[in-house]
Design goal:
single chain; alpha+beta; Trna Endonuclease, Chain: A, domain 1; Beta Polymerase, domain 2; seven-stranded mixed β-sheet; five-stranded mixed β-sheet; 8 helices; 24% strand; elongated; SseB_N; Enhanced serine sensitivity protein SseB C-terminal domain-containing protein; SseB_C
């Protein structure tokens, strides 16, 4: 049965579940959203409450697959789908709730298509902002023993998601996928993404890195190189590689 998203947070969660490139947008929306948690107690009144300084609350937990979670909800509709009878509940900014419940594993919308598990570690990364950190951009030095060539099996999911990002970033011209290997330091090839663009490219690698953090590839890590005229590899890619992304109109 299809369930309609009740708000922007649920819309962005649904998109993030299928598109890794949309996950940073979901996390940002979550940080600024109100979430709902079920309170324990003996007075089952369906009443929205706000926390005041020094106030303590009792929250119910649930067990899923042998593990206990604090259930949270992205809307009252999702909460009412889970709890059929009237309950006391708390409405609070997500960041404030995460700070209050540090160390706990959370389960967003249990039993709903708009659901997600948050480990305590992931919650910590949302609070300190590291969930938004891009992967480091590496530059392949010109005068090293590094070997470069096309992969036998391209990382299809990664390339598809990066194509979505590059289409949104108007100054990206094209992007290539290759593998690099230094026999002196490497035990296996590394995945390389080379990006050609015009203008400033600071945000390009940052946005692409966010995607790469969330996708498993056969040969990690995913490294990026900017084809900005100074890498020394522009000619190699133009002559020997077919871009996996090429902006049709620019």
């Amino acid at each position: 049965m299809s369930v309609e998203a009740a708000n922007t947070l649920e819309e962005k969660l649904a998109k993030a579940m299928n598109e890794p490139s949309a996950r940073p947008d979901f996390y940002n929306e979550l940080r600024n959203s109100e979430i709902y948690a079920i309170q324990g107690g003996t007075s089952p009144m369906q009443e929205q409450t706000e926390l005041s300084a020094g106030q303590s609350v009792q929250l119910i937990s649930v067990e899923m697959n042998g593990k206990r979670y604090l259930p949270i909800f992205s809307s009252r509709a999702r909460m009412q789908d889970f709890i059929k009878e009237p309950v006391q509940y708390l409405s609070i900014n997500a960041v404030h709730f995460f700070q209050l419940t540090k160390g706990a594993d959370l389960l967003l919308n249990p039993g709903s298509p708009f659901g997600k598990e948050f480990s305590a570690r992931e919650i910590e990364s949302i609070l300190d902002g590291s969930v938004f950190n891009a992967q480091e951009a590496y530059v392949v030095e010109k005068n090293t023993q590094t070997m470069i060539g096309p992969p036998e099996e391209p990382p299809t999911e990664l390339l598809n998601e990066l194509s979505v990002v590059f289409e949104r970033l108007k100054n990206v011209i094209c992007a290539y996928n290759a593998q690099v290997f230094n026999p002196r330091t490497d035990r296996a090839p590394r995945t390389l993404i080379a990006v050609s663009y015009i203008g400033k490219g600071d945000n390009i690698i940052a946005e692409a890195g966010k995607v790469a953090e969330n996708i498993a590839v056969q040969f990690p890590p995913v490294e990026f190189i900017e084809l900005n005229g100074s890498s020394g590899l522009e000619g190699y890619f133009e002559s020997n590689c077919k871009p996996f992304y090429l902006k049709e109109t620019f």
